[in-house]
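step 4 of 6: structure.
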Amino acid sequence: MNSLWSSLQLWWAGFQDKFYVCFIEDDRFVRYMLSGLGVTFQVTFFALILGLALGVVVAMIRVTHDTASANMRPGPGRFLLALLNTICKIFVTVIRGIPVVVQLMIWYFVILISIRNGIVVGIIGFGINSAAYVAEIVRAGIMSVDHGQMEAGRSLGLNYIQTMRYIILPQAFKNILPTICNEFIALLKETAVIGYIASTDLTKGAYIIVGRVYEAFLPLIAAALIYLLIVMLLSWLFGKLERRLRASDQR
Amino acid sequence: MINVKELHKYFGKLEVLKGISEHIHPGEQVVIIGASGSGKSTFLRCLNLLEMPTSGQIIIDGEEITNGRHDVNQLRQKMGMVFQQFNLFPHYDTLGNITLAPIKLLHMSRAEADELGMHLLEKVGLTDKAHVYPAQLSGGQKQRVAIARALAMNPKIMLFDEPTSALDPEMVGEVLKVMADLAAEGMTMVIVSHEMGFAREVASRVFFMDGGIILEQGTPDAVFNHPQELRTQEFLARVRESK
């Protein structure tokens, strides 16, 4: 009994010691992990916006081509739409077929060689990667809205874009919200590979501490816990948003 | 008002409309009857270009709409349409469904549009449902809102695509009554319908479509009581049997 107590005490003292070395000494937690968390947030946030904007554009081109092209008169407009559609299809196929970390390195070391800011390149790389997924999600969402809605809008005299904006997209948005939230959460976690292009995010920050203090357990577990907490918080927030949106049309 | 010349429509290789020529005058109420697959709905949907005719001419109000230079959206503002499946906008309340087009297209203020909307709801007997969402309306109520929505753009022509076919029997009457009121006001109406009783009472003319053409047409009395064509007689006999 006595020996168990003393070994527990010994472990606790050791834990405190390691905790101090890992996080407190030299402000390591603040310098590496907290600032890294800031980078994670920045990259996720701006990549999300880029991904949404680009993804919606790609989705609109794909949907417009698939649904409205048959009713268009032959001419340059129809040709342009077919061309854009092909480009979008290739874009989605290529982006979804390559691991994001490889894409990221290609952006950083090959294409955007003149930009030496890993965060900016990360936003571009993750944003474009996310766009391909968002495009497919939004496309599925638009396709899931009953075709009669488009006809009803058009029959009133609204043009294609007005009908999309006021009638189709609000309904599609509600349908895809859960999936978009999943994409957001996936994106947040994917940014953990940004360390490959010389940026210090939360993961890289933890890894730096591991290298400094030769102690892997605490920094990695801390990083894992922080990711987990953020994801849980986001899931909770999105759940609330979803319920509120649904409530508004059951009134 | 609606002048159709040699209208043809193909879906792929299938010829659905095989040359329709017809003139519908202002203030007429035309009911189109016929078996399913006869091309009734396609014909109706060609009139506001929800379906693009493969060939032929449609002239609405003196303007040819099939030459490719006509502004389709402008045309559709003059022609209201009511669908079998209602197609109300589920994310707007009843009043919002009605006022959307006038606000966006006629640039009415919300107050003006609401006033118009309430007036139209009064017409279809649903003022108490102004702030209810479509999910909470019965089928008959939905279709009456859909009619009010189509009227909000002050159209000269109303198209009805089987407006009562998706309704429970006890709700058919309330919708037909609104349509009969509209007819009494002199609205030009083209109605695809299986409601023979309604056609008899309200129609100024009846078209019987069969195999992509208007096989027979005339006053309700002529078509229903003295059909000339064998196909018309068979169709009417079948409809009566099923009653």
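step 5 of 6: annotate
 - The longest strand of chain B covers residues 14-24.
 - The longest helix of chain B spans residues 169-184.
step 6 of 6: archive
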